[in-house]
Amino acid sequence: MGEYPRIGLLTMVRLGLFQAGLGMMSVLMLGILNRVMIAELGIPPLVAAGVIAMHQLVAPARVWFGQLSDAYPVGGMHRTGYVWLGAGAFALLAWGVVQITWQVAAQIALGWTWVTWAWVALLGLGFALYGLAVSASSTPFAALLVDISDEDNRSQLVGVVWSLLMVGIIAGAVVGASLLKQVELDAAAAVVQASVNWLFTLVPLAVVGLAVLATAGIERRFSRYRLRSQVVEREDQITLGRALRVLTASPQTGLFFSFLLCMTLGLFMQEPVLEPYGGTVFGMPIAATTWLNAYSGMGTLLGLGVTGFWVVPRLGKRPTTVLGCGLAALGFLGMMLAGWVGQVWLFTLMVFACGVASGVTTTGALTLMLDLTLAETAGTFIGAWGLAQALARALATLCGGGLLELGNRWFGAESFWAYVPVFATQMVLLLTAAALLRTVDVKLFTERTRMALGELLAEELE
Question: Structurally, how many domains does the chain consist of?
């Protein structure tokens, strides 16, 4: 690999600008627009949640977009063209979704007719297309991280790039807060519409700029794809079907997929119940529970940075991830203890601690995820791992709300015990994830998938 330069810290930060942009877009699409739909426009919460969820239901396309970037370069590059085209598409679609939202609100005000439902269906389609565009951009970007890094600097790259994702989320929240403040000062429909239209024009354009700035020239200078791949420039490059054969060649694939599902469910199931827990059990006002997201985010940021540069190089990737799962499980036990004794300070500390544990776990797991790829099919593998995480995030919201509903029926809506099933389930899932990870063998995975690729290429030569 001597002919390829190694990426430095400044290049890692520059690459992180793309993730920062995705963080800003997630706040806009899943936070601010959701709030405006329900609070300002009077769209029923179930309708709002249903259309927004469409962007997660298209997650299986991540595998396809990953395989496309493996097999069909754009402008002579395997990843960069897809990143840019996807970013341009999701910026346009974000603006378009907002315009459809105004039409849905206007139709609901007139009553629920087939025309209203047609606009709702169109809004759901808009969110689905937005999800496809994000997948088309973010999956090749993650594959690019595999192409340009080596095993010994991958944890630092993950730590920096995903830290900037949190920075983007915080930046998006700050921009959104200024908008919502203006809306609160003057909630006239025209002001709401003008403010949101301006925000959804300015920020997506800035995010496209960040995507270009983050990746321009990176692949051409740093990518090891051509050096590592056996099939570059072959006319019969790997199709989706062949890539899936390589993907499923090793049982380690299923084990790691299951680990990702359990880990992600375990880390994020509390998201829909954390603020209600603070309000119901601790009597915290809305402003105080809103700050819980900031405490968790700051903890995650700290965990990501420290783990990538200090913990993983000393402990190794798998032990770090197992440690993170254990720390997160202890954090959720601490949240239950805080509710039992009714101490707000302990609850706040545990929210921060769970954020740190999430950063530790995420860095270890993402670094392993990038290791568990094959150069020729990196995009396909990244797509599969992204699919596991997307499915788990969607399930986490559903399961968290469902377990709280069961808890409310069993113990009463105002009871601390109503929240115990959520946190206890998370602990079990995280410990299960740690146990599953102990069975994952990166060396065996690489040997099996490399052998499967060799067999596939031999078939083509016969």
Answer: 2
Lowest mean pLDDT segment, chosen from 151-165, 346-360, 379-393: 379-393
Token pair 């969607």 is at which residue?
Answer: 394
Spatial distance between the Cα atoms of 124 and 181, rounded to a whole number of angstroms: 28
Output the CA torsion 187→189→191→192 (10° steps): 80
**Listed range (247-251, 263-267, 442-446) with the worst mean pLDDT:** 247-251
- Contact (CB, 8 A) for 200 and 28: yes
State which of 226, 255, 274 marks the end of a domain: 226
Tokens of 376: 């020729």
The C-alpha atoms of residue 431 and residue 322 are separated, in whole angstroms, by: 9
- The average pLDDT across 110-131 equals 93
Closest CA to 148 of 63, 79, 90: 79
| CATH code of the domain containing 187 | 1.20.1250
Query: Nearest-CA neighbor of 148 among 250, 4, 271?
Result: 4
How many CB atoms are closer than 10 A to CB 293?
18
Q: What letter would DSSP give residue 417?
A: G
Residues 91 and 123 in one domain: yes
Task: Tell me which residue has tokens 């997307």.
Answer: 390
Q: Contact, 318 vs 437, CB < 8 A?
A: yes
Tens-digit pLDDT profile for residues 83-119: 999 999 999 999 999 999 999 999 988 888 999 999 9
CA–CA distance, 204 with 22 (Å, rounded to integer): 10
Which residue from 23, 57, 17, 74 is spatially nearest to 387, judged by alpha carbons?
57
Domain around 63: 1-226
- Residue 27: CB atoms within 10 A of its CB come to 21
What burial class does residue 50 get, using C-beta atoms within 10 Å of its C-beta: 0-12 exposed, 13-18 middle, 19+ buried? Answer: middle
Residue 354 has pLDDT above 90, yes or no: yes
- Asked if 134 and 274 sit in the same domain, the reply is no
The pTM assigned to this predicted structure is: 0.74
The token pair that represents 83 in the structure block:
């990143």
59 DSSP 8-state letter: T
CA distance 115 to 135: 30
